C-alpha cells in the first residue's frame, strides 16, 4: 500500500518539482508529487499528522487520596452501672460462702470468724464484736416457731431488760412453716441491742434459727444485709 505524503516525507522517494516539469508533457500534467514505493514501512508524514486531528488522550481519573482527617465519631456511650453490684458468684460485695462443720452452708461477711457458742449454736462475728450472726439447731422441736417466739417474748416482757417489740409474725421459709421476730432489748452492759431472727421447722422436726444481733445505735442497712444474705444463701445439712 502506498501513502500520499506531502513534501519532505520519508516513507517514499519524492521527486522534486524540476523533474516534474521535465516530464509534464509526456505525463499529461500528472500530480506534482510522485511517490515510489520502496517497500519500507510507511511512517506518518508531517502533513498527515497535521491534517489528521489528534485524539486527545483521556485523562485517567485520579484515585481519591486517602483523607488525612479522622472520620467524625460519636462519643462512646457511657456504660450503665450494674443494677446489682455483686461479684461473679452472685454474692454482695464483701461476702463469702462458708460450709460449716455441722453441714450447713451460707454466706457471711469476709473477715468474720466462726465460734462455737453452745452444743446447738454456732456464731460468726467480726473482730470488733459489735455484731454477730448466729445459727441454732434444735432437733425434735416441741412446738411451732411462732408459738416458741411468743413464749420467749412473754418471758422478756416480765424481765427488766427494756424489751421492745418491732415485729413478730408468721413467715414461711423455704417451704416450711416459720416465724420472724425483730426487737430491741438492753442487757446488763446497758447498751441497747437490736435483734432480727427467722426460725422454721423442717420435715424431720428440726428447728433452725438464723439470728443477727448488733448494737442498736449501729444498726443500719448493712446490718440488714447480713441477715438477708444469710437467708438468701442458707442451705441446711
Automatic annotation (TrEMBL):
It comes from the Bacteria. Residues 1-96 are annotated as: Disordered. This is Serine/threonine protein kinase. Residues 63-77 have a biased composition (Low complexity). Residues 16-25 have a biased composition (Basic and acidic residues).
Amino acid at each position: 500500500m502506498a501513502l500520499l505524503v506531502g513534501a519532505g516525507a520519508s516513507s517514499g522517494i519524492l521527486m522534486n518539482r524540476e523533474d516534474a516539469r521535465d516530464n509534464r508533457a509526456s505525463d499529461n500534467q500528472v500530480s506534482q508529487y510522485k511517490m515510489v514505493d520502496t517497500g519500507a514501512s510507511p511512517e506518518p508524514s508531517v502533513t498527515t499528522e497535521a491534517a489528521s486531528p489528534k485524539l486527545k488522550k483521556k485523562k485517567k481519573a485520579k484515585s481519591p487520596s486517602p483523607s488525612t482527617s479522622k472520620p467524625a465519631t460519636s462519643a462512646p456511650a457511657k456504660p450503665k452501672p450494674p443494677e446489682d453490684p455483686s461479684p461473679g458468684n452472685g454474692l454482695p460485695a464483701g461476702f463469702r460462702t462458708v460450709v460449716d462443720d455441722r453441714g450447713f452452708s451460707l454466706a457471711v461477711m469476709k473477715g468474720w470468724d466462726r465460734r462455737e457458742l453452745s452444743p446447738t449454736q454456732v456464731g460468726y462475728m467480726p473482730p470488733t464484736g459489735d455484731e454477730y450472726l448466729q445459727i441454732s439447731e434444735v432437733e425434735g422441736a416441741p412446738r411451732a416457731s411462732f408459738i416458741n417466739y411468743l413464749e420467749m417474748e412473754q418471758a422478756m416482757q416480765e424481765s427488766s431488760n427494756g424489751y421492745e417489740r418491732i415485729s413478730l409474725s408468721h413467715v414461711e421459709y423455704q417451704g416450711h412453716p416459720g416465724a420472724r421476730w425483730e426487737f430491741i432489748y438492753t442487757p446488763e452492759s446497758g447498751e441497747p441491742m437490736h435483734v432480727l431472727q427467722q426460725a422454721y421447722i423442717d420435715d424431720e422436726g428440726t428447728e433452725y434459727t438464723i439470728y443477727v444481733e448488733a448494737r442498736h445505735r449501729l444498726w443500719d442497712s448493712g446490718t440488714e444485709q447480713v441477715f438477708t444474705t444469710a437467708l438468701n444463701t442458707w442451705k441446711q445439712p
